[in-house]
Amino acid sequence: MSIKKLMASVSAMAFVALAGPAQADVKIGVVLALTGPNASLGVPYRKGVELLPKEIGGEKVQLIFLDDASDPSTAVRNAQKLITDDKVDFLIGGSNTPASQAMANVTQREQVQQMSLAPAAHPADKNQWLVAVPQPANLWADALVKDMLKRKIKTVAFIGFSDPWGDICYNALKEVGEKNGLKIVTNERYARADTSVTGQVLKIIAAKPDAVLVGGSGTPGALPHIALAERGYKGPVYATPGIFNKDFLRVGGKSVENVIAVTGPIGAHDQLPAGNPIKKVSEEFIAKYEAINGKGSWNGFAAFSYDGMLVLEEAIKQALKKAKPGTPEFRKAVRDELRNVKELVGTNGVYHFPEGSAYGVDERSVILVQVKNGDWKLVAN
Amino acid sequence: MSIPGGGARGRSMTFDIFVLLVQDAIGTGAIYVLMALGIVLIFNVTRVIFVSYGDLVAYSALTLGAFELNRMPGTVWLVLTLAAMAFVIEAASLIRRQQARQIPKAFVYWGIIPAIPVALTFLIGAENLSLPVSILLTIALVLPLGPLLYRIVFQPIATAPVLVLLMVAVALHFAIAGLALLYFGPEGFRTSAFVSGDVMIGSFGIPQQLILIVGAAAVFSAILFLFFQYSLAGKALRATAINREGARLVGIWTTRAGALAFLLAAGIAGVAGVLISPTTTIYYDTGLIVGLKGFVGSVVGGFVSYPLAAVGAIIIGLIESFGSFYSSALKEAIVFAAIIPIVLWRWLYVSAHDADEHEEE
Which of A35, A168, A173, A198 would best serve as a mutation to test chain B binding (most B beta carbons within 10 A)? Predict the structure, then answer.
């Protein structure tokens, strides 16, 4: 205990010593999974966050990154540390739903605005300090179910991760699908690190579904698609926004041809009509991102965090007119201004976070895409 | 809410599904066989329960994947760094023992020889390699990792208790998996199949890739069994494991035995990685879970018998395959819970026989 106290006082002294000239900086804590199974999202999210301008409204912006190693309890510890030790004005994170949900308890208590890069929400009265950039699951499940109905699909099999992301996908499909008269015939699960899903896929095929939804993310999401193709499944196969990147296409190869997925508009930005404002923002993002990370490196995950940074930049700009960084007034001002952002065009939608809701996008944030000749093609609705 | 993936629909088992599940089990089981063989081999000689062995397999698969994408694999930097570290450690220990004249020889052993595949890779370049060349380079790059890790990590603590060695091996996993994240990134790799098509037996097709994997597992299993049972070198390696001091007294060079075991194991890992890379997606951290299942398999063999370890690994494959059919959400729990009856059975078996295999400490 005494050692802990000593450490605390040493770090407090170090903080006082360091904090002198940096007092006026806008401090932003970022908690993401930079290692562990969720790193395939956390790493591109980080690169998107780094596109936040180094200076906003004449004030320097300082980003403090902490890795939660894909573990929600570490994410909570990191959030607490950033708030109490580093006195951040704003908290970005996490990169997966369990971490974001858990951190929200801390940010709610400490009254620090949190921006989750993964879908996350609490009941309306507990969302004052939480916003989430991506689309809520029901929004994209709606788009998928509409397409299923159009294809006269009656039964859908589900296979997804044996983790909260799998639960979110399954629950969204179940809720939206059953409302529209679809029957969900299987709820198969697999782990991200699994080397085979033959057992699950055989069970799906035995259930003879009209279509299959795969609730995975990143390259681990390709495994069921490959197994379904190997076993000669002929029906339409659907996927969630979690798999929208080039690595998924690389790993999936021919097996993911014709897969139907949902994503933000940036996914088909080159196929959007010229007047669409999202097209312009998407092109700006890609130019900025590739200037740093190399040609062809942009991805949908980094685009989400870029959108978050656009919203945040706007909120900070307005908040700086009201209060000085590092004060509770400033933290409150950032929160209020974030809710005041209206019709802000990003790469994945048009943002406005109404009070009481964690989400800030509408159906303009969802487009339907299909893999054709190894690339994503916009499905004409 | 019911358990995902469970439920009464499991009754839809038919003969076709049964055969396919067995086939899947043999495919994954064969990978675990290769893992189990390497783990038993290393344990037999050095008493290290090398749980991070799977990481070598992952490195092999990722290296091949990088070659396929015309990228220089990060393995080259790992080998170079480890070679430099191994040489420094060796030189320091030579100086401490006042054998500084041996340093040039140590430089050749630990500095030059491991760097040969790296130099070859740079000479040939990573672009547009033909498949056989990239496979050979991959195995050649993974090969030095074994002895180098042994020299740096395990040789200095070779006489430590088994538990200490195990803890170090676990720690090592985090170090090399972390480096793999740095070198290969968080996304997975899956190479294109080098053989495709099925061999038809009656109305059932058996993928050629599966035959290749099972064949390799069987061949390695047999070779190791014969080597350790009948050859003098194999017996010397075993003697080192059973009694290090005694082996030293009868003239067996125990540190060289350890490096040799790690070299052989790294060779198996290299081949295993190449074989599984077209059959599944490999991530920077896949190694641990695959390695652990190989470990469970080798427990069946009591860490001494290669054929029993192979049988155990196939059993794990079967449990996993059928577990994923009947209750996919609980699959991992089923596999790792299987270790309890296996250990119980081993314990009864060992206590019914003799105390031969007891640790001397």
Answer: A198
